[in-house]
Specification:
470 residues; alpha/beta; 5-stranded parallel sheet; 3-stranded antiparallel sheet; 20% strand
Length: 470
Amino acid sequence: MVLVSILVQKNVDICFWEAECFKIDAENKKVYCRCNQNSNMNGKEEFVVDYDYLVIAMGARPNTFNTPGVMEYCNFLKEVEDAQKIRRTVIDNFEKASLPNLSNEERKRILHFVVVGGGPTGVEFAAELHDFVNEDLVKLYPAAKDFVKITLLEAADHILNMFDKRITDFAEEKFKRDGIDVKLGSMVVKVSDKEISTKVRGNGETASIPYGMAVWSTGIGTHPVIRDFMKQIGQTNRRALATDEWLRVEGCNNVYALGDCATINQRKVMEDISAIFKKADKDDSGTLTVKEFQEVIDDICERYPQVELYLKNKKMRNIVDLLKEAKGDVAKESIELNIEEFKTALSEVDSQMKNLPATAQVASQQGTYLANCFNRMEDAEKNPEGPLRFRGEGRHRFRPFRYKHLGQFAPLGGEQTAAQLPGDWVSIGHSSQWLWYSVYASKQVSWRTRALVVSDWTRRFIFGRDSSRI
């Protein structure tokens, strides 16, 4: 209903169907769907949707690494239904632990909450669960207070290892003070209905951890529909759909993908080095001058962002410094490179290529970019705005997608948040929490949802969290 109301407010001609896609037929431009609502029919009703352009944004599934028992006994953090199930389980466990006929050992097991995965999601969940338990539930179940335990299992040497070390150290120290047991280097090898088996990375020691609820948060895996589609189009042995820099699925016409289900396969400079050289060498002299190269450098940096990143990391002012380094100690005006010297100058540029993180920030920017491309498609056909086609004639219709990192947050509980923003700016504490509140509210899709979120925070500050069973 929220999505429908948003579409109505935008005053656009869109038809919304709530259904599950179970097959994509790119050759015939069809999407096969089934109704996921309750029906009086014996099976779920199926239908087919034809398309001219298809945008795939299905997200991903939890990555279990084929660990036995995870799918059967663990909770996940992907869907709204997962959150509702976790909330019910937490409250149910407190109710069970309050029964008079249980031993203390059984109470400890039931009230032992284990979080697997020390990334931003796992850390935030462990922190929020700690606050929920200690600020709200122990008031309703005072007898259970001494039996509650939260354990965070992480296979690596540190939690939040994608953040600045200052944030990692603060988070580990804060969790230690809060009583959250962080076990580093612990790999889960098996999950049963009452125990989690772990192995210590390095010495191979094994242990069994009794638990009452386990939450699995260790990365993302491929959705079955996406996996079948990848086989269909010849993209095997990949984690996600490969797209080009314009978010077009490689091997398909008029199919685009974004978010966690896709990854941008940035083209390498060295694959096109001969074409770049030929395009820049306008007088066909067989050598490139500084002037010739400067005429195409903007297009090169736009088409191959790893060039600009390489220059930045090497602390070079511009591409001329790179050419000069390859040529040797010569004056700027006298630099002339042949094809082999040009290859030498750019030989290490592709080492800067990195995949984008699977975050909502990336997906949001991709969605905005793709919507703008569709809105301007007719104009861009007549007046291309992208970089030069080094392997063809003319220009690309659009500029390639460029991700702009705006920073990242890690809520740590107790109204404290760690923020790492561009420019190596790190902030930890209560002020960062209010910054996180502001950013979170601003990213909501409408003023209605912003008001609902802020009012929910206000009620929590005044009355505490709702502990009723839904």
